[in-house]
Amino acid sequence: MDALASWTRALRADIIRMIAAAGSGHPGGSLSVIDILAVLYAKHLRHDPKNPERPERDRLILSKGHACPALYAVLAHRGFFPMERLATLRQLGSPLQGHPERHRLPGVEASTGSLGQGLSMGLGMALAAKLDGSSRRVYVVTGDGEMQEGQIWEALLAAPKFRLDNLTLIVDANNGQIDGHVSEIMPLDPLPDKLRSFQWDTRCVDGHDLEALDQALAAIQTVRDRPQAIVAKTTKGKGVSFMEDQIAWHGKAPNKDEVEKALKEILGG
User: Fold this and answer.
1) Residues of the chain whose pLDDT is less than 70?
2) Which residues constitute the domain of residue 187?
3) Per-residue pLDDT tens for 79-93?
4) 3-state SS record for 178-200
Protein backbone atom coordinates (compact mmCIF):
# COMPACT_ATOMS: atom_id res chain seq x y z
CA MET A 1 0.00 0.00 0.00
CA ASP A 2 3.02 2.33 0.16
CA ALA A 3 2.82 3.15 -3.54
CA LEU A 4 -0.92 3.79 -3.26
CA ALA A 5 -0.41 6.04 -0.24
CA SER A 6 2.20 8.00 -2.17
CA TRP A 7 -0.24 8.35 -5.06
CA THR A 8 -3.00 9.72 -2.83
CA ARG A 9 -0.61 12.39 -1.56
CA ALA A 10 0.14 13.42 -5.13
CA LEU A 11 -3.59 13.50 -5.89
CA ARG A 12 -4.27 15.68 -2.86
CA ALA A 13 -1.57 18.10 -3.97
CA ASP A 14 -3.15 18.30 -7.43
CA ILE A 15 -6.55 19.04 -5.90
CA ILE A 16 -5.13 21.96 -3.94
CA ARG A 17 -3.29 23.34 -6.97
CA MET A 18 -6.31 22.99 -9.26
CA ILE A 19 -8.74 24.76 -6.96
CA ALA A 20 -6.24 27.50 -6.16
CA ALA A 21 -5.60 28.13 -9.88
CA ALA A 22 -9.34 28.28 -10.54
CA GLY A 23 -9.98 30.56 -7.59
CA SER A 24 -13.04 28.50 -6.71
CA GLY A 25 -14.06 24.92 -6.04
CA HIS A 26 -14.71 22.44 -3.27
CA PRO A 27 -11.57 21.28 -1.44
CA GLY A 28 -13.29 19.77 1.61
CA GLY A 29 -15.27 17.05 -0.14
CA SER A 30 -12.60 16.46 -2.77
CA LEU A 31 -9.99 15.71 -0.12
CA SER A 32 -12.37 13.46 1.81
CA VAL A 33 -13.28 11.30 -1.20
CA ILE A 34 -9.88 10.99 -2.87
CA ASP A 35 -8.77 7.83 -1.03
CA ILE A 36 -11.97 6.07 -2.10
CA LEU A 37 -11.47 6.98 -5.76
CA ALA A 38 -7.78 6.09 -5.66
CA VAL A 39 -8.41 2.56 -4.36
CA LEU A 40 -11.22 2.04 -6.87
CA TYR A 41 -9.14 3.07 -9.87
CA ALA A 42 -5.92 1.44 -8.70
CA LYS A 43 -7.32 -1.96 -7.74
CA HIS A 44 -10.96 -2.60 -8.61
CA LEU A 45 -12.54 -0.53 -11.38
CA ARG A 46 -12.15 -2.03 -14.86
CA HIS A 47 -11.26 0.88 -17.11
CA ASP A 48 -9.17 1.57 -20.19
CA PRO A 49 -7.88 5.13 -20.78
CA LYS A 50 -6.94 4.17 -24.35
CA ASN A 51 -10.50 3.02 -25.03
CA PRO A 52 -12.69 4.90 -22.53
CA GLU A 53 -15.94 3.77 -24.19
CA ARG A 54 -15.13 0.05 -24.09
CA PRO A 55 -18.54 -1.58 -23.54
CA GLU A 56 -17.39 -3.99 -20.84
CA ARG A 57 -15.82 -1.28 -18.66
CA ASP A 58 -17.14 -0.76 -15.15
CA ARG A 59 -19.00 2.48 -14.48
CA LEU A 60 -18.13 5.01 -11.78
CA ILE A 61 -20.66 7.75 -11.06
CA LEU A 62 -19.48 10.59 -8.85
CA SER A 63 -22.91 11.62 -7.69
CA LYS A 64 -21.41 14.31 -5.42
CA GLY A 65 -20.33 16.15 -8.54
CA HIS A 66 -18.92 19.20 -6.74
CA ALA A 67 -16.00 16.96 -5.67
CA CYS A 68 -14.97 16.60 -9.32
CA PRO A 69 -11.42 17.94 -8.72
CA ALA A 70 -10.75 14.56 -7.09
CA LEU A 71 -12.16 12.68 -10.08
CA TYR A 72 -10.30 14.88 -12.57
CA ALA A 73 -7.00 14.33 -10.76
CA VAL A 74 -7.47 10.56 -10.81
CA LEU A 75 -8.49 10.49 -14.49
CA ALA A 76 -5.47 12.57 -15.48
CA HIS A 77 -3.09 10.36 -13.51
CA ARG A 78 -4.61 7.25 -15.13
CA GLY A 79 -4.03 8.70 -18.59
CA PHE A 80 -7.51 9.73 -19.75
CA PHE A 81 -6.23 13.20 -20.66
CA PRO A 82 -2.98 15.20 -20.28
CA MET A 83 -1.97 16.24 -16.78
CA GLU A 84 -1.53 19.82 -17.98
CA ARG A 85 -5.27 20.11 -18.47
CA LEU A 86 -5.83 20.03 -14.70
CA ALA A 87 -4.73 23.67 -14.57
CA THR A 88 -7.82 24.62 -16.63
CA LEU A 89 -10.35 23.69 -13.92
CA ARG A 90 -13.46 25.88 -14.16
CA GLN A 91 -12.04 28.02 -16.97
CA LEU A 92 -14.32 29.14 -19.78
CA GLY A 93 -14.28 26.53 -22.53
CA SER A 94 -12.45 23.90 -20.47
CA PRO A 95 -13.95 20.40 -20.31
CA LEU A 96 -13.03 20.41 -16.60
CA GLN A 97 -16.02 22.32 -15.34
CA GLY A 98 -17.21 22.74 -11.75
CA HIS A 99 -19.30 19.60 -12.12
CA PRO A 100 -18.45 16.67 -14.40
CA GLU A 101 -19.96 16.59 -17.90
CA ARG A 102 -20.39 13.22 -19.58
CA HIS A 103 -19.88 14.39 -23.17
CA ARG A 104 -16.94 16.73 -22.62
CA LEU A 105 -14.37 14.60 -20.84
CA PRO A 106 -13.29 10.97 -21.38
CA GLY A 107 -13.75 8.79 -18.32
CA VAL A 108 -16.78 10.65 -17.00
CA GLU A 109 -19.79 8.33 -17.00
CA ALA A 110 -22.54 10.74 -15.92
CA SER A 111 -23.13 14.47 -15.73
CA THR A 112 -23.76 15.11 -12.05
CA GLY A 113 -24.04 17.97 -9.64
CA SER A 114 -27.72 18.24 -8.86
CA LEU A 115 -27.44 16.09 -5.78
CA GLY A 116 -29.44 12.92 -5.28
CA GLN A 117 -29.60 11.72 -8.88
CA GLY A 118 -26.50 9.56 -9.21
CA LEU A 119 -27.83 6.43 -7.53
CA SER A 120 -30.86 6.37 -9.83
CA MET A 121 -28.53 6.68 -12.83
CA GLY A 122 -26.39 3.87 -11.46
CA LEU A 123 -29.44 1.70 -10.88
CA GLY A 124 -30.42 2.10 -14.53
CA MET A 125 -26.91 1.26 -15.71
CA ALA A 126 -26.76 -1.81 -13.46
CA LEU A 127 -30.16 -3.03 -14.65
CA ALA A 128 -29.08 -2.53 -18.27
CA ALA A 129 -25.97 -4.60 -17.61
CA LYS A 130 -28.12 -7.40 -16.20
CA LEU A 131 -30.41 -7.31 -19.24
CA ASP A 132 -27.34 -7.41 -21.50
CA GLY A 133 -25.90 -10.39 -19.65
CA SER A 134 -22.80 -8.29 -18.96
CA SER A 135 -20.38 -8.69 -16.06
CA ARG A 136 -19.75 -4.94 -15.77
CA ARG A 137 -20.23 -3.36 -12.37
CA VAL A 138 -21.53 0.07 -11.39
CA TYR A 139 -20.13 2.09 -8.47
CA VAL A 140 -21.93 5.20 -7.23
CA VAL A 141 -20.17 7.59 -4.84
CA THR A 142 -22.41 9.93 -2.85
CA GLY A 143 -21.90 12.30 0.03
CA ASP A 144 -23.66 11.79 3.33
CA GLY A 145 -25.34 15.19 3.00
CA GLU A 146 -26.62 13.99 -0.35
CA MET A 147 -28.21 11.00 1.35
CA GLN A 148 -30.86 13.40 2.66
CA GLU A 149 -32.37 13.56 -0.84
CA GLY A 150 -35.62 11.65 -1.29
CA GLN A 151 -34.68 10.31 -4.72
CA ILE A 152 -31.81 8.42 -3.10
CA TRP A 153 -34.24 6.46 -0.96
CA GLU A 154 -36.43 5.59 -3.93
CA ALA A 155 -33.38 4.06 -5.60
CA LEU A 156 -32.46 2.29 -2.37
CA LEU A 157 -35.89 0.66 -2.42
CA ALA A 158 -35.71 -0.36 -6.08
CA ALA A 159 -32.24 -1.91 -6.33
CA PRO A 160 -32.94 -4.93 -4.07
CA LYS A 161 -36.19 -5.61 -5.91
CA PHE A 162 -34.21 -6.15 -9.10
CA ARG A 163 -31.46 -8.07 -7.28
CA LEU A 164 -28.78 -5.73 -8.59
CA ASP A 165 -25.71 -7.40 -7.15
CA ASN A 166 -23.64 -5.48 -9.71
CA LEU A 167 -24.46 -2.14 -8.04
CA THR A 168 -22.37 -0.67 -5.21
CA LEU A 169 -23.12 2.50 -3.31
CA ILE A 170 -20.18 4.15 -1.53
CA VAL A 171 -21.06 6.93 0.91
CA ASP A 172 -18.34 9.49 1.56
CA ALA A 173 -19.52 10.10 5.12
CA ASN A 174 -17.56 13.21 6.09
CA ASN A 175 -20.38 14.70 8.22
CA GLY A 176 -20.24 17.96 6.30
CA GLN A 177 -22.47 19.86 3.92
CA ILE A 178 -22.65 23.47 2.84
CA ASP A 179 -24.92 24.52 5.72
CA GLY A 180 -23.09 22.73 8.52
CA HIS A 181 -22.55 19.28 9.95
CA VAL A 182 -24.84 16.56 8.63
CA SER A 183 -25.50 15.39 12.18
CA GLU A 184 -27.01 18.80 12.91
CA ILE A 185 -28.75 19.64 9.61
CA MET A 186 -30.55 16.32 9.09
CA PRO A 187 -29.09 13.36 11.01
CA LEU A 188 -28.74 10.08 9.13
CA ASP A 189 -27.70 7.77 11.94
CA PRO A 190 -27.90 4.88 12.16
CA LEU A 191 -27.25 4.94 8.40
CA PRO A 192 -25.76 1.42 8.13
CA ASP A 193 -28.76 -0.08 9.91
CA LYS A 194 -31.14 1.81 7.65
CA LEU A 195 -29.37 0.53 4.55
CA ARG A 196 -29.45 -3.03 5.88
CA SER A 197 -33.18 -2.69 6.55
CA PHE A 198 -33.56 -1.81 2.86
CA GLN A 199 -31.87 -5.17 2.05
CA TRP A 200 -28.49 -3.77 1.01
CA ASP A 201 -25.39 -5.76 1.95
CA THR A 202 -23.72 -3.08 4.07
CA ARG A 203 -20.34 -2.62 5.69
CA CYS A 204 -18.59 0.33 7.36
CA VAL A 205 -14.94 1.27 6.93
CA ASP A 206 -12.48 4.03 7.67
CA GLY A 207 -12.57 5.90 4.38
CA HIS A 208 -8.92 6.91 4.69
CA ASP A 209 -7.62 3.41 5.47
CA LEU A 210 -6.49 2.23 2.05
CA GLU A 211 -6.21 -1.41 3.08
CA ALA A 212 -9.66 -1.40 4.70
CA LEU A 213 -11.16 0.14 1.57
CA ASP A 214 -9.42 -2.44 -0.59
CA GLN A 215 -10.70 -5.31 1.54
CA ALA A 216 -14.27 -3.98 1.54
CA LEU A 217 -14.28 -3.53 -2.23
CA ALA A 218 -12.89 -7.04 -2.66
CA ALA A 219 -15.50 -8.53 -0.32
CA ILE A 220 -18.49 -7.10 -2.19
CA GLN A 221 -17.48 -9.00 -5.33
CA THR A 222 -18.78 -12.20 -3.75
CA VAL A 223 -22.20 -10.84 -2.76
CA ARG A 224 -25.04 -12.33 -4.78
CA ASP A 225 -28.62 -11.16 -5.40
CA ARG A 226 -28.26 -7.94 -3.40
CA PRO A 227 -26.78 -4.51 -4.00
CA GLN A 228 -23.95 -3.47 -1.70
CA ALA A 229 -23.28 -0.33 0.32
CA ILE A 230 -20.02 0.83 1.87
CA VAL A 231 -20.31 3.62 4.43
CA ALA A 232 -16.84 5.15 4.43
CA LYS A 233 -16.23 7.34 7.47
CA THR A 234 -14.09 10.24 6.28
CA THR A 235 -12.91 13.68 7.33
CA LYS A 236 -13.77 16.72 5.29
CA GLY A 237 -10.53 18.33 4.11
CA LYS A 238 -8.46 15.28 5.04
CA GLY A 239 -4.71 15.81 4.78
CA VAL A 240 -4.69 19.57 5.38
CA SER A 241 -4.90 20.35 9.07
CA PHE A 242 -6.57 23.75 8.80
CA MET A 243 -9.22 22.37 6.44
CA GLU A 244 -10.09 19.21 8.36
CA ASP A 245 -13.70 19.14 9.59
CA GLN A 246 -14.08 22.83 8.81
CA ILE A 247 -17.35 23.59 7.02
CA ALA A 248 -15.89 26.88 5.77
CA TRP A 249 -13.71 24.83 3.40
CA HIS A 250 -16.69 23.14 1.78
CA GLY A 251 -16.47 25.50 -1.19
CA LYS A 252 -13.59 27.95 -0.87
CA ALA A 253 -10.28 28.21 -2.70
CA PRO A 254 -7.05 28.60 -0.71
CA ASN A 255 -4.90 31.70 -1.16
CA LYS A 256 -1.19 31.60 -1.99
CA ASP A 257 -0.02 31.25 1.62
CA GLU A 258 -2.62 28.58 2.34
CA VAL A 259 -1.57 26.65 -0.77
CA GLU A 260 2.06 26.63 0.37
CA LYS A 261 1.08 25.49 3.86
CA ALA A 262 -1.26 22.79 2.51
CA LEU A 263 1.31 21.41 0.07
CA LYS A 264 3.96 21.31 2.78
CA GLU A 265 1.63 19.25 4.97
CA ILE A 266 0.66 16.91 2.13
CA LEU A 267 4.04 16.41 0.52
CA GLY A 268 6.40 17.23 3.38
CA GLY A 269 9.54 19.31 3.07
Assistant:
1) 269
2) 2-267
3) 999 999 999 999 999
4) CCECHHHHCCCCCHHHHHHHCCC
